[in-house]
Amino acid sequence: MSNAAAQPEQAHKALQDKEGKYLTFALGSEEYGLEILKVREISGYMEITAVP
């Protein structure tokens, strides 16, 4: 196989390596994503309690 023919296959493999499942979320106007396997717990929104 020529080097030119191998390049698209290498690019496709690199893309497949980056595919996966992610937890995505937004903070303000910014969007973030984490690999789902790195997530340990998802907590919902909690009311803030004032402390005297």
Describe the secondary structure blueprint for this structure:
Elements: H1 3-18, E1 22-27, E2 30-35
Question: Mean pLDDT across all residues, rounded?
Answer: 82
The secondary structure category is: alpha+beta
- Biggest beta sheet summary: 2 strands, antiparallel
Task: Tell me the helix content.
Answer: 25-40%
Strand order of the largest sheet: 1-2
Number of strands: 2
State the low-pLDDT regions, or none: none
Query: CA-to-CA gap between the ends?
Result: 73 Å
CA radius of gyration is 20 Å
Task: Write the element-wise H/E pattern from the N-terminal end onward.
Answer: HEE
Q: Per DSSP, what share of the residues sits in E-state strands of 2 or more residues?
A: 15-25%
Using the alpha-carbon principal axes, give the shape.
Answer: elongated
Question: What does this 3D model show about the protein?
Answer:
The protein is an alpha+beta fold and 52 residues long. It has a domain at 3-38. It is built from 1 helix and 2 strands. Strands 1-2 form a two-stranded antiparallel sheet. A hairpin with a 2-residue loop joins strand 1 (22-27) and strand 2 (30-35).
